[in-house]
Amino acid sequence: MSALKIKKGTSKHSAYDLRSHLSDAQERHTLAVVVDNESGVLARVIGLFSGRGYNIDSLTVAEIDHTGHRSRITVVTTGTPQVIHQIKAQLERMVPVYEVHDLTVEGPSVERELALIKVTGEGEKRVEALRLADIFRAKVVDTSLNSFIFEITGTPDKVDAFADLMRPLGLIEVARTGIAALSRGAK
């Protein structure tokens, strides 16, 4: 038998070593989960994530069917493709879960987030905050002599950009709803 030579800088992969074929790249996925609207369901879904050490980047929940008592949970999470697959499979096995949709892989979707951003300031800083709010299409929903509360809706990146610009102008508080998302098109 002859010895197999391996070039420096390369590695030998066995067909039986499955880890060599799996991706370690982290991906962000938006999952839409339709569940029974009853007590304890949200805790069970969150428990699935926390019990296995999966992170939740964003979480929103609201009732979508009053007569059928169903709610939609929109979860944004990050993980390897294998972890995302495992999360979806475990969610689908839960009894109060009716549907699990991975909006990230099912096609184009629309994501939006609402934020309330409180900014204090006087003089030029106040004028600049209003100018930037106009550019970002943020609405003033409350005002006093030395503060504003802006309401902004958009992608998480848009909300982040607006908040970053407000920091030097006196940003003191941010409240965010988390992401709401729907697939585009007729399906």
SSE map:
Blueprint: E1 27-36, H1 41-51, E2 56-65, E3 70-79, H2 81-93, E4 97-102, E5 109-120, H3 124-135, E6 139-143, E7 147-154, H4 156-166, E8 171-183
Antiparallel strand pairs: 1-3, 1-4, 2-3, 5-7, 5-8, 6-7
Task: Please summarize what this structure is.
The chain has 187 residues and is an alpha+beta fold. The chain has helices spanning 41-51, 81-93, 124-135, 156-166, and strands at 27-36, 56-65, 70-79, 97-102, 109-120, 139-143, 147-154, 171-183.
User: Helicity level, as a percent range?
Assistant: 25-40%
Reported by name, the CATH topology of the largest domain is Alpha-Beta Plaits
Structure class: alpha+beta
Which value, in Å, is the CA radius of gyration? 23 Å
Number of domains: 2
The CATH homologous superfamily name of the largest domain equals: ACT domain
User: How would you spell out the order of helices and strands?
Assistant: EHEEHEEHEEHE
What's the number of helices? 4
CATH class of the largest domain: Alpha Beta
CATH architecture of the largest domain: 2-Layer Sandwich
Mean pLDDT level: 89
Going across the major beta sheet, what is the strand order? 2-3-1-4
Task: Sum up the overall morphology in one term.
Answer: elongated
Largest sheet report: 4 strands, antiparallel
Q: Are there runs of 5+ residues with pLDDT below 50, and where?
A: 1-21
Instruction: Work out the number of β strands.
Output: 8
